[in-house]
Amino acid sequence: MGSTVNSPSTPIIIPSSPLQTSFIPKTSQLSIFKKKKPFNFASKKLVSCKASDRNQKNADSSSLNRFDRRDILLGLGGLYGATNLVSDPFASAAPIAAPDLSLCENSTVTSSSSGTSMTVPCCPPKATNIIDFKPPRFSNIRLRPAAHLVDANYLEKFTKAMELMKALPDDDPRSFRQQANVHCAYCNGAYDHVGFPDQQLQIHFSWLFFPFHRFYLYFYERILGKLIGDPNFVMPFWNWDSTPGMVIPDIYVDPTSPLYDEKRNVDHQPPKMLDLDYAGTEELLSKRDQIKSNLSVMYRQMVTYKTPSLFHGAAYRAGDNPSPGMGSVENNPHTAVHRWVGDKREPFSEDMGNFYSAGRDPLFYAHHCNVDRLWNIWKSLPGKKRTDFTDTDWLDSSFLFYDENANLVRVKVRDCLNSRTLGYDYQKVNIPWLKNKPTPRRPGRGSGSGSAMAAESNTKTVIRNAFPIVLDKLVRIEVPRTKKSRTKVEKENEEEVLVLQNIRVDRDVAVKFDVYINDEDDETPTEPEDSEFAGSFTNIPHNHHNPGEKLDTKLTLPLSDLLEDLDIERDDNIVVTLVPKEGKGLVSIGNIKIDFVRD
Ligand code: C2O
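# CU-O-CU linkage complex -> structure
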């Protein structure tokens, strides 16, 4: 720690520590990363008993895939949940089970910066009877509308529904407060994994992100529809990925409306343009530049992430440590929108700026409808790996929600993969970001930049094996590449990725740092519209109740397109620049390396 101390203006070049390759025998790697985790025989046995023959086949083949992938993960130094599954022959089925509501605990919300803390009861009413989810019957697909395009008739219905929801008694599981608490409970440590009392359930930072929120919205919508006697009611989406949607939609800003929330950033009312690269400070871009920046963020996060794990996030199984790694959209711009809307004057950036309170802002649901819509769009883009996982641990992961009749329903991820089987899709609107591919900052600098880089690196301080590093200033790291000039087919089969391992930070801190590749210009800031901008890491403040447990996660950024665009596919190394934007000095990074994703 602290090895990056240097004069503030001098960037440091740190060659990353040697790659752990998969040539190291598995066992020797495993022993390094031994993680104690109780093996719950009972719950696993149950799952395999239930599996039909067909499922069993899937489970078998997916467990093979899983071992493949695990080799890659170990190459990356992937520490999460790998060990037991490799050594444990029964571990082929370990989906996250729906939580046991009777064991739900109050959440604690803290702020490390102000030293404040409070207890939040966000457990749902208990119910003994659980119904297994069945896809609804319907006669037509309903289209969720863009919030800025709805008519007066729709608005009247929506407003009425929200009013009625807010009028339900607080102990009704369908009430506005209880529905907001659903998010708090699944995101702030109220539940443990069934059979693993030390592992808190966290549905963010992993492959559970999209399915969990899809079901959450689905039941919310059913409740609203029931309240106004309209089973065809659909919620609106906040179309922040297109120009007319880049302000808070009008219908949410009338202080007399039930769609209004006073705990929002007062400086971000319309006509203020949303910043999808938001890091806690105002950027003062012209409207035109802000649009360009936003569309570039969208292009990168949607188009350059081409495999299920890059899009959805890392695998997360029963007994695993929480928060193995976010997917593209969850990280960015999902976090930026939360932070941009939340009120900085509130102790915990309520409502949208903290997971425990985000569901208290009606705008949350429009925000997440757009996130959900992007899942549909991502799968419709060209590319043979733009599919969902086939891993049964993902498909069989389950959650509990109260439905429109206040019945407790157990849902499985496999039941929500196609929004149309749930009876809805999204109004078709323009998708402007498809045409906003980032471009290199300095055209023509391509080939030969490897040697230019080497020459330059001589002029900078070089520190070997400096990890872990604390991100308190701009840091440069030279990272070796193992495969160069790959063919198109090779690139399609394996995405070259940059992996930042063991990113550690207090969970209750807002964080954003950016990652640039071969970017040597310290004078002008790199922006999302530059090809050199590889992505960002973000955190929305939230808590778990294990005191002192830090967020410990990884960031995986696709490189194949970027290397092509910068014309550096033949280079032996890339130079990675890490720039803290929010939460400076509070984040440490365990290692950084290049690897390959095959899923
Ligand atoms: Cu569950 Cu947008 O967070």
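# post-check
The two ends are 34 Å apart (CA to CA).
The longest strand covers residues 495-505.
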